[in-house]
Amino acid sequence: MGRIVVEVMPKPEILDPQGKAVAGALPRLGLDVFTGVRQGKRFELSVDGEVTPALLDAARKAAETALSNPIIEDVVGVYDADGQR
């Protein structure tokens, strides 16, 4: 069984209150080396057999039409869970 990973992030101009909250908490935990945090979404799509270019194309279409809101989010990654982009 193959797996395809889809990563979705808020567009840069969209406020990210959850990312801001995490960014504020990190220094309190002694992790003060990070200058910002953005939080996104990760989906794992399972397929029968190996991941093919056609399946990756189908996953891209699903990402753009069903897994993300194109008004406020960008699809930033669609790839085979083994790392093929």
UniProtKB/TrEMBL annotation:
<dbReference type="GO" id="GO:0004642">
    <property type="term" value="F:phosphoribosylformylglycinamidine synthase activity"/>
</dbReference>
<dbReference type="GO" id="GO:0005737">
    <property type="term" value="C:cytoplasm"/>
</dbReference>
<dbReference type="GO" id="GO:0006189">
    <property type="term" value="P:'de novo' IMP biosynthetic process"/>
</dbReference>
<comment type="function">
    <text>Part of the phosphoribosylformylglycinamidine synthase complex involved in the purines biosynthetic pathway. Catalyzes the ATP-dependent conversion of formylglycinamide ribonucleotide (FGAR) and glutamine to yield formylglycinamidine ribonucleotide (FGAM) and glutamate. The FGAM synthase complex is composed of three subunits. PurQ produces an ammonia molecule by converting glutamine to glutamate. PurL transfers the ammonia molecule to FGAR to form FGAM in an ATP-dependent manner.</text>
</comment>
<dbReference type="InterPro" id="IPR036604">
    <property type="entry name" value="PurS-like_sf"/>
</dbReference>
<keyword id="KW-0963">Cytoplasm</keyword>
<comment type="subunit">
    <text>Part of the FGAM synthase complex composed of 1 PurL, 1 PurQ and 2 PurS subunits.</text>
</comment>
<dbReference type="Pfam" id="PF02700">
    <property type="entry name" value="PurS"/>
</dbReference>
<keyword id="KW-0547">Nucleotide-binding</keyword>
<dbReference type="InterPro" id="IPR003850">
    <property type="entry name" value="PurS"/>
</dbReference>
<comment type="pathway">
    <text>Purine metabolism; IMP biosynthesis via de novo pathway; 5-amino-1-(5-phospho-D-ribosyl)imidazole from N(2)-formyl-N(1)-(5-phospho-D-ribosyl)glycinamide: step 1/2.</text>
</comment>
<keyword id="KW-0658">Purine biosynthesis</keyword>
<keyword id="KW-0067">ATP-binding</keyword>
<keyword id="KW-0436">Ligase</keyword>
<protein>
    <recommendedName>
        <fullName>Phosphoribosylformylglycinamidine synthase subunit PurS</fullName>
        <ecNumber>6.3.5.3</ecNumber>
    </recommendedName>
</protein>
<dbReference type="GO" id="GO:0005524">
    <property type="term" value="F:ATP binding"/>
</dbReference>
<comment type="similarity">
    <text>Belongs to the PurS family.</text>
</comment>
